[in-house]
Structure to design on (495 residues):
């Protein structure tokens, strides 16, 4: 079934019909984490948002190359290109190698994403592994006349770019011309010609650990350069979708557009997608504000605020976190509260209970229930309307009511109804939205543990030459659909 997918483009500020540059193929780049600390709820939102985009595009039949980077160099403490690289700072404080810090938190990020059932991207490039590409990009911009060298650092010339293209500020809606008109030059007091110029390459101070040779100095790339260079390397230029959090619109993504236009003459992508923020009491959750709760803290239920007050009333499972995020549209703000998470937990539990109840319903009659017949189409309509997961969830709750009514004997469902309801849940709740039955996962571990106990009892019987008991256990398991295979290292089982 061909679907007409609409995507809200931050650049045009409207929904647009999605048409990939190359038919049947989609290139998507999403800004990944800066790995100098544990992932928190604010990191989970873009990961889950674009995981759903990735899943749905693949469901529609597209071959998707999904690139999500790891920022392990070049992200300064302040976006004004001053201060100290965050990873280098962490390494200095903990007396570690910077790449030791980056690898540790990359591993922890991956572990958290796996728990949240976020699929790994097609390619996960590291900024530190693409220094040559970033140097080449800086040289292209210099050759085009939109950058200048100052004391070994290279800065993007926002004033000249704006005079020639009138495009700086188009993504964020900032009026850069007013900034240019009201900001005086610093008369040599600063390396920059204009305070809004951003670093393409920074000369490293003597104490700076992370540095590479370049034509201009031993130093390191600017934050914005990495995504432009890696996006073009792996997806070509332009590519289809560039995603990230709304907090990246300015200056990061605005600067990415400027770098790409300056070096190639065109924008980096067709569609800009941005998820909104997670807030606590109306304030953005983030490391810089010190109000974040790590994902591991959510999973264990232990977190105290700066005043020592316990913030979490209970542990919240990964699927509760995922469902909580998907209950809101990705462009809406989501405010954290224990009540909201507990409601998400109950909501997902109700859907899972209804799904399992489908297996206990005896089909009756041949007529199709009206609400079932168009359920799949309504879910597709919601997903095609800029990935409206809250609407899909509302349709699934309607389906749950029908299932529960049939389970109670109040409504009749045909076998076709039951099959269709199961198919809709399988497609939209599990495949597209990436939810999974955590209880089933827990049961798998339980079953495995019980099976090893049974096999140990059988091994003891064999050792005591109690063949009758050994054979009885094997035969009983076979009747239950479990095959036992004896080997030199002991017995194994399979279903």
């Amino acid at each position: 079934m061909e679907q007409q997918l609409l995507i809200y483009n931050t650049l045009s500020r409207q929904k647009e019909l999605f048409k990939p540059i190359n038919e049947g193929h989609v290139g998507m780049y999403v800004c990944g984490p800066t790995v100098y600390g544990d992932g928190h709820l604010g990191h989970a939102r873009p990961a889950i948002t674009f995981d759903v985009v990735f899943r749905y595009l693949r469901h529609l039949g597209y071959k998707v190359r999904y690139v999500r980077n790891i920022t392990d160099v070049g992200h300064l403490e302040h976006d004004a290109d001053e201060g100290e690289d965050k990873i280098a700072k962490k390494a200095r404080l903990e007396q570690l190698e910077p790449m030791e810090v980056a690898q540790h938190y990359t591993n922890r990020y991956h572990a958290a994403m796996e728990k949240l059932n976020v699929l790994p991207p097609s390619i996960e490039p590291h900024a530190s592994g693409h220094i040559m590409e970033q140097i080449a990009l800086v040289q292209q911009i210099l050759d085009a006349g939109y950058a200048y060298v100052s004391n070994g650092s290279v800065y993007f010339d926002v004033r000249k770019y704006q005079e020639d293209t009138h495009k700086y500020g188009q993504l964020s809606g900032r009026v850069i011309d007013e900034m240019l008109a009201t900001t005086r030059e610093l008369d040599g007091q600063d390396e920059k010609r204009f305070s809004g110029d951003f670093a393409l390459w920074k000369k490293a101070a003597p104490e700076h650990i992370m540095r590479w040779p370049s034509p201009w100095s031993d130093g390191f790339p600017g934050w914005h350069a990495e995504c432009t260079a890696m996006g073009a390397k792996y997806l070509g230029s332009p590519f289809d979708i560039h995603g990230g959090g709304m907090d990246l619109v300015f200056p990061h993504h605005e600067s990415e557009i400027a770098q790409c236009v300056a070096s190639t003459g065109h924008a980096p992508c067709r569609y800009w997608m941005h998820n909104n923020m997670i807030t606590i009491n109306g304030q953005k959750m983030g490391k810089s504000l010190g109000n974040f709760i790590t994902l591991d803290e959510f999973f264990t239920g232990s977190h105290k605020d700066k005043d020592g007050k316990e913030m979490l009333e209970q542990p919240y499972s990964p699927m509760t976190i995922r469902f909580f995020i998907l209950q809101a549209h990705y462009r809406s703000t989501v405010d954290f509260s224990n009540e909201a998470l507990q409601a998400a937990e109950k909501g997902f539990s109700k859907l899972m209970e209804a799904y399992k109840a489908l297996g206990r319903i005896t089909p009756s009659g041949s007529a199709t229930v009206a609400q079932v017949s168009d359920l799949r189409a309504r879910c597709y309509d919601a997903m095609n309307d800029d990935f409206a997961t809250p609407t899909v969830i509302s349709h699934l709750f309607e389906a749950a009511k029908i299932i529960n009514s049939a389970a109670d004997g109040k409504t009749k469902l045909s076998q076709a109804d039951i099959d269709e309801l199961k198919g809709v849940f399988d497609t939209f709740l599990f495949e597209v939205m990436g939810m999974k039955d955590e209880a089933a996962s827990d049961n798998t571990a339980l079953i495995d543990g019980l099976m090893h106990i049974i096999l140990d009892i059988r091994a003891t019987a064999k050792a005591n030459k109690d063949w009758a008991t050994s054979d009885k256990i094997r035969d009983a398991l076979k009747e239950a659909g479990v095959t036992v295979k004896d080997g030199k290292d002991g017995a194994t089982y399979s279903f």
Q: What stands out?
A: The chain is about 45% helix and 15% strand. The first strand starts at residue 6 and ends at 9. The chain has a mean pLDDT of 90.
